[in-house]
Design brief:
The chain has 5 helices and 10 strands. By secondary structure, it is an alpha+beta fold. It has one domain: tt1808, chain A (Alpha-Beta Complex). Strands 1, 2, 3, 4, 5, 6, 7 and 8 form an 8-stranded mixed beta sheet that branches. Strand 7 and strand 8 form a beta hairpin. The C terminus is likely disordered.
Length: 209
């Protein structure tokens, strides 16, 4: 016998809109999301400002400050730190259904399996062209980009001195710029990739050992 979901999607949205606490949603269950740190807000808002300026004459919508993204194939809803969508049906208080770009800043020590599950779920979205993971305390990012011709996803690790190529919206931004004026100390590492495949950054490897 199928297990009765603890929450319907409608109940979940009603609860999120009524309270300050945030939760992801997966198959009828809610999972608490830590409040965004000052660094989360800084990176999301800085990138969001660049995106809005670039897309001001475009039909795309830029979302920051925690936007919910719906993944129907897995009956999931996740909070993203920033997103770009061409979603004319979006209604405030619901979720984005057609993102072309999603951006997350992960907290140090957040469970790895949750990140991997989110990655797999996001990459199932037919509308999504790129998924960007930003490290919170060093100039580092992992960029997942879809190749439509090959119907495949590719990942690129970038770091200090590199350019963040957001091909999904035809925008290139020096990664360092996003961290300028950051509210938290930023580690300085040599230019070049500093993240490893599989959503693992060097500082995570140190925590696991």
């Amino acid at each position: 016998m199928a297990q009765t979901p603890l929450f319907t999607l409608e109940d979940y949205l009603a609860g999120e809109n009524a309270g300050a606490a945030r939760h992801d949603f997966l198959q009828g269950r809610r999972y608490g999301v830590p409040p965004p740190t000052a660094m989360h807000r800084h990176l999301g808002d800085t990138l969001g400002a660049r995106l809005r300026a670039h897309l001001k004459h475009d039909a795309s919508y830029v979302f920051t400050g925690g936007i919910r993204i719906r993944v129907p194939d897995f009956d999931a809803v996740y909070y993203a730190d920033a997103a770009v969508a061409v979603d004319l049906t979006y209604e405030a208080g619901t979720f984005v259904k057609l993102p072309i770009l999603a951006v997350d800043v992960f907290a140090v020590g957040a469970p790895g399996p949750d990140r991997r599950r989110r990655l797999a779920h996001y990459l199932s979205l037919e509308s999504l062209k790129q998924y960007v993971l930003l490290a919170p305390h060093q100039v580092s990012a992992m960029v997942y980009s879809r190749d439509d011709e090959e119907n495949a996803w590719y990942q690129d690790a970038i770091g200090l001195g590199d350019i963040l190529h957001l091909t999904s919206v035809s925008l290139a931004v020096p990664l360092d710029v996003l961290y300028e004026g950051a509210p938290d100390p930023i580690e300085t590492r040599p230019a070049g990739p500093v993240a490893e495949p599989g959503l693992i950054f060097p500082w995570e490897r140190e925590e696991e050992s």
